[in-house]
Each structure stands twice: as structure tokens, then as C-alpha cells.
């Protein structure tokens, strides 16, 4: 499952240990996978070695998470 709403406790600034950016999946692929889950991406930024995803769900509620750029899985929520 791609990056989506996070429900478990994680550190405020996760480390992805994702290796060189040449091995990362594209932000376009991440956006495509989220769109298929009815999540509208507003912005994706690189923060450290993770993607920071700012998005909203179909109820227009924020879904802001750090995602692993190789697996596209959630590694933690972005603090408000």
C-alpha cells in the first residue's frame, strides 16, 4: 500500500535510510498511487532522505505524512 493516512506512533522527524536519490521512485508515481486511493496531493517535498507529502482525503481532511521514497510506504506523520 502506498503512502496514506498514518495511525501508529512514530518519531517527529523520521529517517528513511533510503539510499541515493537515483534509486528513489518518482514523486509522479507517488502522486499517481495516492490519487488511486482518493487522496489529492497538494505538494511533495524532499525532507532529509524522505518524501514529505501534503495532501487531503476525499473528506478534505489533511493527510500529511513522511513516506519512504523507495517503497512509498508511510514512515510517520508530519507534525502540525
What this model shows, in words?
The chain is of the alpha+beta class and 80 residues long. The chain has one domain. 12% of the residues lie in helices and 28% in strands. The chain has 1 helix and 4 strands, in the order H-E-E-E-E. Strands 1-2-3-4 form a 4-stranded antiparallel sheet, with helices on one face. Mean pLDDT is 88; it is low at 6-11.
Which key features would you list for this structure?
80 residues; alpha+beta; four-stranded antiparallel β-sheet; 1 helix; globular
* Biggest sheet descriptor: 4 strands, antiparallel
Report, as a whole number of angstroms, the end-to-end distance: 24 Å
- Percent strand: 25-35%
Secondary structure: number of strands: 4
**Strand and helix order:** HEEEE
What's this, in brief?
By secondary structure, this protein is an alpha+beta fold. It has one helix spanning 27-36, and strands at 40-47, 50-56, 65-67, 74-77.
